[in-house]
Amino acid sequence: MGAFRDWFAWAKGEETPDPEEIQEEPGVKRYFGFSLDHKVIGVQYAFLSLFLLVVGGSFALIFRVELVQTGMQWVSLNFFNTLIGMHGMTLIVSILMGISAMSNYAVPLLIGARDMAFPRLNAFSFWLAVPASLVLVSAIFTGGFDTGWTGYPPLSLRAPMGMQMFFVAVFFAGWSSILGALNLIVTILRMRAPGMNMFRMPIFAWATLATSIIALTATQLIGTSFQMVSFERLFGMGFFDATKGGNPILFQHLFWFYSHPAVYIFVLPGLGIISELLPVFVRKPLFGYKWVAMSSLGIALVGFLVWAHHMFTSGMEEYLRVPFMYSTLLVAVPTGIKFFSWVATMWMGRIRFQVPMLFLIGAIIVFLIGGLSGPPLGTVSTNLHMHDSYFVVGHFHATMFGGFIFPLFAAVYYWYPKVTGRKMNDLLGKIHFYLLTPGFLIMSFGQMQVGLLGMRRRIADYDPAQGFETAHLIITIAGFMVALSVLIFLINMFVSAKRGEVVTENVWQSRSPEWTVLPTPAPMHNYPQPIRVVGDPYDYGLKGARYVEVLPQQAGD
């Protein structure tokens, strides 16, 4: 794709153009090739994320139809197990791509930068994610695997070739995530506009910084754990084989040291989107700005201390249970700061119920359900009963939808005019919301209910005497409501690119520089004239408050 062309030329001593001097041809073709524009790369990540969202969601619809009745109706046991694992990991990679989409597109615009710190590395990170995604999807055609998305040995040591494709795909996706995190950290710390100190920085930039710190420092652990299983499969090494002196619980420690902080990689950008957009539609300053900013770093820090609550039933040392229980419950403190800030921001505000605001409200409600259903899984006594039950499935989906999916849709509706110069259809957007929200709530509560009654997760069949068929039918119908809402969203997105209402002004009356300074759609190199921050980002409703001003162009620039 051209990722190495300039690097090889530089290594040979040849002159390479500065990214700020490169002018790419406008048009749709930019999105299908190698681009150094962070906005194009953000859109590329978004389309890859939506592709994986559709693929992973389709896997779920298939096995949900299978679960409506007892007995195996449509698929084999092995294929069912493969669908379960593929659904989980495909959507996890989809979320990672969605986070990269939001961060790549929005962060340089929000902080007044002309581009990312390392544009070539940014493009390379995306083009690592493409083969990773394709290899992951190919696992279903190469024998599949029956381990679920966690890949636990010793089962993963005996799984078909699809297991190896799964490991390779996650390894490359992790590599992409690490490089992207490095780029974002440098961009946020070194490329802010003059006058933008850390506490004048948008909350979404704070959330992205915390997320990138986790991704940079923890992703290696899942890569290492999967690489060790791969070596054990290919070369007979005994890292996790007890007969060779290995320890299978070691894998779980390595895996969950990344995979629980990864939950905060998934939700912190979404929570940042809520805090970023809420003042725009409430027309009030964000309540407790500094506390909200620091709470993202607090969640990132505490997130490294909670991984073993996934292992209370694994046979690890019992004396570790209590400290990990307390550290898990401690996450509620910085998360609660965000909730209280959102409620206080909305209190007595002049709320405008436009489509992005609807999804923000949905995100707050759904994430609250995910948060309240978490402590029973974090305390030892209740975890021992509910571990690996469908209650965990309901909790995890509520956390992911409230912490990422709803905020992602809000972000797409909000920044879509800046990308395309057109606004998405409001009626279709509201239909999308009013289908998605009740559909998801029914699905999530139904999963929690059957979990409390004894339904295990990743199980293809169940005893008819348990009486789960009606509940699974309702859950499946709700799942199809969610799928229909996403289909309406995709239709809206593609049709609006050609037929949407033309937008050239600050359509949301935002104070952010990408709306107040830049034309719509945004030019390639962002700010042709430098800007300076002279106020606070969320002073909505305060008379005479200013956030940025345009600096005069200097001679010779």
TrEMBL record:
Per its UniProt record, what InterPro entries does this chain match?
Answer: Cyt_c_oxase-like_su1_dom, Cyt_c_oxase-like_su1_sf, Cyt_C_Oxase_1, Cyt_c_Oxase_su1_BS
Domain of life, per lineage: Bacteria
Entries under Pfam families matching the protein: COX1
The UniProt keyword set, sorted, is: Electron transport, Heme, Iron, Membrane, Metal-binding, Respiratory chain, Transmembrane, Transmembrane helix, Transport
Any transmembrane segments, and where?
40-63, 83-111, 123-145, 165-189, 201-222, 262-282, 291-312, 324-343, 355-374, 394-415, 427-450, 470-491
* Gene3D superfamilies (UniProt xref): Cytochrome c oxidase-like, subunit I domain
Q: What is this protein called?
A: Cytochrome C oxidase subunit I
**Where can this protein be found?**
Membrane
Which SUPFAM superfamilies does this UniProt record tie to the protein? Cytochrome c oxidase subunit I-like
Q: What does this protein do?
A: Cytochrome c oxidase is the component of the respiratory chain that catalyzes the reduction of oxygen to water. Subunits 1-3 form the functional core of the enzyme complex. CO I is the catalytic subunit of the enzyme. Electrons originating in cytochrome c are transferred via the copper A center of subunit 2 and heme A of subunit 1 to the bimetallic center formed by heme A3 and copper B.
Its BP terms in the Gene Ontology are: aerobic respiration; electron transport coupled proton transport; respiratory electron transport chain
